[in-house]
Automatic annotation (TrEMBL):
GO biological process annotation, one example: DNA recombination
Keywords: DNA recombination
Cross-referenced SUPFAM superfamilies: DNA breaking-rejoining enzymes
Organism name: Amycolatopsis balhimycina DSM 5908
Chain segments annotated as transmembrane: none
Protein name from the UniProt record: Integrase
Gene Ontology terms, MF aspect: DNA binding
């Protein structure tokens, strides 16, 4: 699973400070057992209230912790992640990845064409426009 170095450092610091229980779990109750679902829901709700605006809090944004997984995979794709790699990281097939996250890829055609043009050493469309503007001046 990819993790930016600053987040990895935060996780390592947390592990050094708090450790894990014998079975390797990071999150545990005060007595070392499983965290109750009601506790998770309460803490998640409190975190959403603290992190989001009132309008965002009323919206479905990050309503469940699982929503973060969807946001993460969407970010990887929108950021230009290679579908096969993103699918592997997410534990999906490429077909499922594209079926579930296709809307994230919509509208990225121009960006993709620009990347292809750069790899081929061709001017991007906006560079062509700038040259046309200079020629007509």
């Amino acid at each position: 699973m990819p993790c930016p170095p600053p987040l990895t450092a935060m996780l390592q610091q947390h592990l050094e400070q708090y450790g894990v229980v014998d079975d390797g779990r990071l999150f545990r109750s005060l007595d070392g057992g499983d965290v109750a679902e009601s506790t998770l829901a309460r803490v998640w709700d409190k975190a959403r209230k603290a992190a989001l605006s009132a309008e965002e809090y009323r919206s479905p944004l990050a309503r469940r912790p699982y929503d973060l997984r969807h946001a993460c995979v969407s970010t990887w794709l929108a950021g230009g992640g290679i579908s096969a790699q993103v699918a592997m990281w997410a534990g999906h097939s490429v077909a499922v990845l594209h079926e579930v996250y296709a809307k994230v890829l919509a509208g990225l055609e121009e960006e993709s064409l620009g990347k292809i043009a750069r790899i081929l050493g061709l001017p991007a469309d906006d560079e062509d426009q700038d040259e046309d503007d200079l020629d007509s001046a």
